[in-house]
Amino acid sequence: MAELKSNSAPSAERKLHWADEAEEEATSKSAPPKLSWGEVAASSVDALSICETEFNGFLDEPEALNINAVTTGDTPYTSASTFEDLKLTPALLKGLYTDLKFQHPSKIQAISLPMILTPPYKNLVAQAHNGSGKTTCFVLGMLSRVDPNLKAPQAICICPTRELAIQNLEVLRKMGKHTGITSECAVPMDSTKYMSFAKRPPVTAQIVIGTPGTIKKGISAKKLSIGSMKILVFDEADHMLAEDGFKDDSLRIMKDIQRISDHCQVLLFSATFNQIVKNFVARVINDHNQLFVKKEELSLESVKQYKVDCPDELSKVMVIKDRILELGENLGQTIIFVRTRHSASTLHKSLVELGYEVTTIQGALKQEDRDKIVKEFKDGLTQVLISTDLLARGFDQQQVNLVINYELPVKHENHSEPDYEVYLHRIGRAGRFGRKGAVFNLLMGGRDEMLMEKIERHFNSQTAQVAAWNNAEDFKGALKAAGLL
Ligand SMILES: Nc1ncnc2c1ncn2[C@@H]1O[C@H](COP(=O)(O)OP(=O)(O)OP(=O)(O)O)[C@@H](O)[C@H]1O
Ligand SMILES: [Mg+2]
């Protein structure tokens, strides 16, 4: 894989972002929002011209997923019940059917792809559930809109972490295998291979997927040409445009591109868009179609959520050891989320001392170690992965049945306030594309209970209590009820 490289060294004093990225920083302060997304939606309802067909009977995806559409202008969009309806090239259809083994578009694919692929190629802000197939929407969008005869960058996809950029590139390469379209990953490389942008050849790949810092540097160094840009995608877009995310870099890239290629289509995809981001999006993305989901309908029914009261930290370790690890491979793969790098390494040490094989990923590791740990997990060589929020968003591994919140996610600026979006993304690592899954939230004391209550209220989702942290039957019952045993 050809890689562009960032010249930013990880800073020891940097503040920890939700995703625990080591290499990318955001710095901006934004003006207060003027118009909320809700207001835009309401004022545009009269213009709604989408034709919806019945969405049910898909292979894995639950029928109940509810996505609302609001379009602007007078272009009618007919949702696609087959990939053929989208008039994709034979090369792309081959990739979808033969390499990815997809049979039908999922609901978000059926609705969003006609919006992406129909002239005048309007901007799109698309929200859909975790694991519902958003990657395919923007990957097919990029592959379809690129002119294969023009050997210059025409599509950029920006992701919050190197792991997600690499994963999305892998999907793109598989889907586009028969198209001849070229692609490149723009993420930081480890310091031993560093080469300044000035010394690198210009990017010739037609699609570039990467992290914001590296993409920004490629553009500034005039090594990543934006003159022929047709489509700009933000995956995990709410985080990419958030104050404590990558707002500065994202806006800068968007403005640079729009200044030169005024018809560049912008696509924003995420499972979550909180009100602050919605308001901001309404201000910065011109004339866009929207797909959105009510927050009360975002939790996946196929993923059962549990809470477990644990008297102290040792009991949390024992729950993982005796109730989860002892069941071994019967459970499929497990991700244990922790809040800080420090927690990641102390939990890792505790479990290794007890004789269990676990791997741990967090932003302070060397890039090549991060890549190795993810690859081993994706290849099924490791069963249990401890992670900071580095993997909370987008990480797709269908074999993950179980997510454990060793610590609940909280807002950086206020630890009494849950980070609702991160909670949803974490639990969405299980139950991909309608699969069954379970989540255990390990609560230690009143503060955790209060956080859990707030989360339940926010998403209107029920979290069942596991009666006793030290009772094997209680856990087996919970896992059975989730369909995992
Ligand atoms: N049409 C389809 N048919 C079968 N499987 C599909 C289809 N579309 C996507 N998938 C599979 O569903 C899984 C989840 O897809 P994807 O990672 O795109 O979800 P997502 O919506 O981006 O979720 P998240 O919000 O968590 O990032 C992937 O393993 C993908 O291969
Ligand atoms: Mg995704």
Automatic annotation (TrEMBL):
Alphabetized SUPFAM superfamilies for the sequence: P-loop containing nucleoside triphosphate hydrolases
Gene3D superfamilies recorded: P-loop containing nucleotide triphosphate hydrolases
Domain annotation Helicase C-terminal: ranges: 319-474
Molecular function in Gene Ontology: ATP binding; hydrolase activity; RNA binding; RNA helicase activity
Region annotation Disordered: where it falls in the sequence: 1-34
Helicase ATP-binding domain span: 115-291
Membrane-spanning ranges: none
Regions of compositional bias (Polar residues) in chain numbering: 1-10
EC number, UniProt record: 3.6.4.13
Domain DEAD-box RNA helicase Q: 81-110
Domain of life, per lineage: Eukaryota
Keyword entries, A-Z: ATP-binding, Helicase, Hydrolase, Nucleotide-binding, RNA-binding
Identification of the protein by name: RNA helicase
